[in-house]
């Protein structure tokens, strides 16, 4: 028995030695010639030894086996068969290397993520006849891919991706894609991201399916491919990964993708895909990663998901996907990343998402989700959640954040959330960013006596209703970098000294609260202060210029909307060694600049806003680096410097409006080639419009506003091809001559306003079939008919047209208004209806220019400082139009204002006007209309102004709640009209109390007597109006609150108000808003 056990022991030991030890002993060491080649390769390659982790440790030690070196693999005979030298910071030496191309047994070569400094791929690579894997991705190679690569027939994997390195792309032109792959029949993986592939249409699909039938991985991102995707691609039955992002495929997603039974990754982001996405693709059982983002015309809905799906990443952002999220999304138990931002999803966020226990990243922002925010106690791996820019309601509680210890990012901004902020939010252990701006949170933030260590770096509570004092625990957050508390109701005194405890603080915004700011700081302690770069103290009740600020290294400073007065001190231009990039001193009471001032020496100042002050005298020379310059609404009364264009050569926005500038418009403005907005309105400028302003319209100019000046001469007819103008306002001048036909070269125009001049011409039919929204020709010398020739003519966007006080004549065809699509049913929903007409520029910083227009509304001339896109108006008054008012006027369902007065229209009032349920003002006075007032007019419940006077209407005024609310003046001058509110009974011809009428000079006239009661009433009205006007002119806060109320009234008129009205702080100019 003992002998048997001993024998078994030796047998087992022998087997172990044979199995595990023998191979190690028999394995060949690196051959000496291979080692010599590798060491020579190290010398030939030029690389950064501090960044290298492999090459740098290869050495000549005789006892060291080169097969054990990092990045080297050998076969059993000691030949080098694999080199993995990716990320070695190699930048030269490949093109002249002899040692590399002498490694004849090489099967794998990986040089990815080095930088070979814009050289071509060496053609000698074809010497590697045994190569199966070649990876040259992101190595900085440029130019044509050599044809020699096509002879490497044993290649299984080829990666030449070049999306992120190289000043020039790699190209597949000659040879083309076909010549490259026709011999590479063993390929299983092909990555050509960023390579310019020269093929026509769908040929690329056919080539790949013909020559590479066994492909498992195909990645052709940003290869300049075009569509459609040919059905032959369906022959790649083994396909597991398909990436075609950033090509202009401009096609639908083919249904045959569903048949790729092994597909794990489908990435089609930014391909200009359109149509309906096949929902069955979501059901492919092997699919793990799906990205179809940034296909803005691609629509679809999420299906009902069954159990045991493998999907891990779902990215649908910036598509047209809509409808609600299904509760069955909880069946996708492997999901770790969901990106559905900037789509059209609606409904409630399903509470079943809480079952996705693997979820790490959730982004549902920029949709129309409603209801409450679900609680996510099971999502313990969640690090990122963004639900911003929806319509979520309700409050937050501590239960929302229990067990979310890994959460790093929260963004619930731009919703309708209410209630107090729970303390649990501020003590999440991993939280770095907390963004809750633009909600309705209220109450005080509860103080936390001994807050735990916080990782919060950015806290944004702007635009809420938070009250009380700013809690002290915020100043215990040592990692805090950005603190934004503006547009709330915080009160008390804020001491700048508090910020000393937040050593990392770089951005602080306390604007528009009820705070008193204590800036009394001992200058000797400034060295202990954080390095604040961005400081915003707008509307903080400052009465003295805060001199301690000169000791900070500021790059952004906002002191707007305070009570600062006197001179702007010289030291402000010296802050941070003249390194200010943003300075806003608007809405104060500054009168001048302390001399000597050196604005022009600020070489990196990009935003300078000195508007709405009392500055006078000559215009300060602006800094040459400025992109945004606003000197508007001051008392400057000099001429504009002739060389101003020299100093504004980099400017995108320049406003000198609402001053008293005199003289001519300098031609040097034409040197400011990058100008997007030029506003010289409301001054006393004279002379003519420089022709170079229109000749250079092919540059970047989007807004040219020179209204309300004293300009004369012709409008230059030299608008160049490629003109980018969106707003042209030349109104309220003394311009003459013909209307410029060259405006046809400006297809982007939204607003054309040349009202109140002496311009001649016929109706500008050139604007038909364009996106023009506002056309004002009021009070000029236009003539002729309004009909435009052509078979297909329409106004797709026109919402305001005022051609009154001209000499237009002729009849309007019965279908005249049927082509005005911009005034038909408006489907503006939610926040869309709150939008106003504007010109966006410097979009990353949130700058825009707000269009304005002067209209006659209800008999009063009014300046619309904000043109809501739902506001519609037609004013054809005081012309010579005749004939019947077309019944097609009733098609304009969204029309608010209609004025056809003082023409020669005849026949009856169209009953179709009763279809205009949004109509608020109707003026048909001084025409020759006959017949009865249509009964349907009584159903116009929004109608607040009506004038049918001085026509030939007859019969009784229709009974109803609306038409009897107007005074008799609305109906006077119609001899045959009777009924309330007229003092004419329909049963009697007696006209009690109505003075006799007579017809003179084409109009009805009434002999009246002076009534002192009316005179005194008018005097009282005039006094009240004068006081109101003075308040509007000289009190910015009162003015802003007034226009806020006007906005709210208009929104209620045009549609049911949805969402909440955002509170805008006093002192923000109404023609543009800035965010930084």
TrEMBL record:
SMART domains: LRR_TYP
Membrane-topology annotation of the record: Single-pass membrane protein; Single-pass type I membrane protein
Record-annotated Leucine-rich repeat-containing N-terminal plant-type domain positions: 32-75
UniProt subcellular location: Cell membrane; Membrane
One record GO biological process: defense response
Location (main, coarse): membrane
Protein name: Receptor like protein 6
